[in-house]
């Protein structure tokens, strides 16, 4: 059956024979017990448990026509706009249960991207090898309900130079050897979500390429536990709290991580290679992936926004200001910002487009980019309002170890008491929750840079919006002599590269 429980996932990633994983300079042998990575494992685990929990079961499961049974939605290929909507709704719901990024979305988006691209190459060029390899891999992933990381962002070296122009030729992942049985790759991918706690990693090109970059135009999948793979886990805000063994300062007890994954002459068999030297397809591939990922942000970031709004409301009650008009107005603004992100994500889903004769449902690229552009802005505004209402204690509260010290606990309880019937401990727990969620990489930094920085979305806006058609419409209304060829669609749009290929 293509469904694993959370505990089965945990058992499956315990032992690494080949991959080298480092956290704060030390090699990790068991990621499931390492104090730094365990909160990340717990967050990933929630995506598996969701398929068995009553309140998320329907969202977290989907029927796969490729293996003829139900699978976890995180390995599902979207079959309709309703599937795209379910994705956004599931991400919001899971954010409520984890209070952090649950790390499984990038691999999911990579699966759907490769499904479309490999099928398009087969249809347009009559070459079925990529499609056949991918479909075999998809069946394997779905039957085993694998935890996947998606690795797209290269380390990039000198940003003004193309991959083939780099002084360090390994600044982008590339093929260094072609063999009868496969390829050998070298390079590194940066800021890879959940990389240390997955079963496999899917590697995609990070940008559109030219013929001179052909050796960099590669997409493949390998088990994380493959010889030559090294993972260096990055630092995050307040991450050392995971090592303290407390139960208050570290809430919500789940966390995510990002890491640098390095491929030191890693062998990839041909049946795991889904693109090689086909540089003309890198542009459509990146566009398809980016829009999928930008759409999803409307779900997970609005879910974290709910956590922040709830904590802010609770803290306002704790200090007796929840009923003040100024506070109500600020909370309403937080709701507006939060629901705007979610609404855009749903619009990108319901207005999805079919890129293949046989399925291949993709998001509406304009609305997906609008979603992500909102996400790049609005979480900072939501966090700012939350901190305004909660007060400076969000950044200055005593540690839980002070609170648990019997010599001074009574003093902290007395002087941090607000409304008498709300315990000081409740206020402190909400303070820590608000701090850990609203000042996190997952809510702030990732909102700007994940799935591309704001400049990338603006580029897509200008590509997709038909300014000339809009000008013709305006001139027609202004009674300027112009002949308007009215489109069937209500929006002045140009087709995306993915729709044209």
Automatic annotation (TrEMBL):
<protein>
    <submittedName>
        <fullName>Vinylacetyl-CoA delta-isomerase</fullName>
    </submittedName>
</protein>
<dbReference type="Pfam" id="PF11794">
    <property type="entry name" value="HpaB_N"/>
</dbReference>
<keyword id="KW-0413">Isomerase</keyword>
<feature type="domain" description="HpaB/PvcC/4-BUDH C-terminal">
    <location>
        <begin position="284"/>
        <end position="478"/>
    </location>
</feature>
<dbReference type="InterPro" id="IPR009100">
    <property type="entry name" value="AcylCoA_DH/oxidase_NM_dom_sf"/>
</dbReference>
<keyword id="KW-0274">FAD</keyword>
<dbReference type="InterPro" id="IPR004925">
    <property type="entry name" value="HpaB/PvcC/4-BUDH"/>
</dbReference>
<dbReference type="Pfam" id="PF03241">
    <property type="entry name" value="HpaB"/>
</dbReference>
<keyword id="KW-0285">Flavoprotein</keyword>
<dbReference type="GO" id="GO:0016627">
    <property type="term" value="F:oxidoreductase activity, acting on the CH-CH group of donors"/>
</dbReference>
<dbReference type="InterPro" id="IPR024674">
    <property type="entry name" value="HpaB/PvcC/4-BUDH_N"/>
</dbReference>
<dbReference type="InterPro" id="IPR046373">
    <property type="entry name" value="Acyl-CoA_Oxase/DH_mid-dom_sf"/>
</dbReference>
<keyword id="KW-0560">Oxidoreductase</keyword>
<feature type="domain" description="HpaB/PvcC/4-BUDH N-terminal">
    <location>
        <begin position="5"/>
        <end position="275"/>
    </location>
</feature>
<dbReference type="InterPro" id="IPR036250">
    <property type="entry name" value="AcylCo_DH-like_C"/>
</dbReference>
<dbReference type="InterPro" id="IPR024719">
    <property type="entry name" value="HpaB/PvcC/4-BUDH_C"/>
</dbReference>
<dbReference type="GO" id="GO:0016853">
    <property type="term" value="F:isomerase activity"/>
</dbReference>
């Amino acid at each position: 059956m293509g469904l694993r429980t959370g505990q089965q996932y945990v058992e499956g990633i315990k032992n690494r024979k080949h991959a080298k994983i480092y956290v704060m300079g030390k090699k990790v042998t068991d990621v499931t017990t390492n104090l730094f990575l365990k909160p990340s494992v717990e967050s990933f685990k929630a995506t598996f448990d969701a398929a068995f929990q009553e309140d998320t079961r329907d969202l977290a499961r989907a029927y796969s026509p490729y293996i003829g049974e139900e699978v976890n939605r995180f390995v599902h290929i979207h079959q309709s706009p309703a599937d795209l909507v379910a994705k956004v709704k599931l991400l919001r719901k899971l954010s409520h249960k984890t209070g952090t990024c649950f790390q499984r979305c990038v691999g999911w988006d990579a699966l759907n991207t490769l499904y479309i691209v490999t099928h398009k190459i087969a249809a347009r060029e009559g070459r079925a090898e990529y499609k056949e390899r991918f479909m075999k891999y998809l069946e394997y992933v779905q039957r085993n309900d694998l935890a996947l990381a998606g690795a797209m962002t290269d380390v990039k070296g000198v940003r003004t130079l193309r991959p083939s122009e780099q002084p360090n030729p390994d600044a982008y992942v590339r093929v260094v050897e072609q063999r009868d049985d496969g390829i050998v790759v070298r390079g590194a991918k940066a800021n890879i979500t959940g990389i240390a706690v997955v079963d496999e990693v899917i590697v995609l090109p990070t940008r559109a390429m030219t013929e001179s970059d052909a050796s960099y135009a590669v997409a493949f999948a390998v088990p994380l536990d493959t010889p030559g793979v090294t993972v260096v886990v990055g630092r995050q805000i307040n991450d050392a709290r995971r090592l303290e063994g407390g139960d208050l300062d570290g809430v919500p007890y789940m966390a995510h991580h990002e890491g640098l994954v390095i491929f030191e002459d890693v062998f990839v068999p041909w049946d795991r290679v889904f693109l090689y030297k086909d540089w003309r397809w890198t542009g459509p591939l990146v566009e398809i992936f980016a829009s999928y990922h930008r759409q999803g942000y409307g779900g997970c970031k609005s879910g974290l926004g709910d956590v922040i709004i709830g904590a802010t409301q609770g803290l306002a009650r704790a200090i007796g200001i929840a009923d003040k008009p100024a506070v109500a107005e600020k909370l309403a603004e937080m709701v507006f910002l939060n629901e705007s992100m979610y609404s855009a994500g749903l619009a990108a889903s319901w207005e999805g487009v079919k890129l293949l004769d046989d399925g291949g449902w993709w998001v509406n690229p304009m609305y997906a980019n609008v979603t992500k552009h909102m996400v790049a802005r609005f979480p900072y505004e939501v966090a700012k309002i939350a901190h305004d209402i909660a007060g400076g204690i969000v950044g200055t509260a005593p540690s839980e170890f002070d609170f648990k010290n019997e010599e001074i606990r009574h003093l902290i309880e007395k002087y941090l008491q607000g409304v008498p019937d709300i315990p000081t401990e409740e206020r402190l727990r909400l303070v820590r929750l608000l701090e850990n969620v609203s000042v996190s990489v997952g809510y702030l930094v990732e909102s700007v840079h994940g799935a591309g920085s704001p400049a990338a979305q603006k580029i897509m806006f200008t590509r997709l919006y038909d300014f000339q058609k809009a000008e013709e419409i305006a001139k027609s209304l202004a009674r300027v002599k112009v002949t308007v060829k009215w489109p069937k669609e209500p929006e002045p749009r140009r087709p995306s590269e993915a729709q044209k290929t």
